[in-house]
Amino acid sequence: MKTRAPVRQQCDCKRVLSVDDNDYNQMIVSRMLSKLGFEVVKAYNGAEACSILESIEESIFSKCLKRNCCCFTLIMTDLHMPIMNGLDLIKKVRQFPEDIGILPIILLSASDEKEQIDEGFKSGMNDFIVKPFSEDTIK
Fold first, then answer.
1. Distance CA 118, CA 134 (A)
2. How far apart are CA 16 and CA 33, in angstroms?
3. DSSP assignment of 80-102, as one string?
4. Which of 32-46, 55-69, 73-87, 91-105 has the lowest mean pLDDT?
5. Which one, of 95, 86, 93, lies nearest residue 131 by Cα?
């Protein structure tokens, strides 16, 4: 049984939090998203991503001033990372206050094992993409 996390009302921010411990993967995701008009903020593990999300009120990121704006449109996270993996990040984000806690989250993995996908949906992800992927996949 798949359970999808709620999706928030869209704001005008075009900023994605990309979470991956691999520099090459960060570069590829950044290039793809930049071509689509997104600003990309990078974190190299789930704990670093949580720190960025926790500091939004004091951050340099500007809000679009629409209701429920939290500066980010989406979180894209790798599954396997040191310190805090993608599943633990998703669970943690879902505990944040509503504006952040309902951000759409896409889990990225080189594996398409059913158990991982099911666990991702149970954790609160919105979608799953198998790496490598093309720009068309994220449009």
1. 23
2. 8
3. --SSS-HHHHHHHHTTS-HHHHT
4. 55-69
5. 86
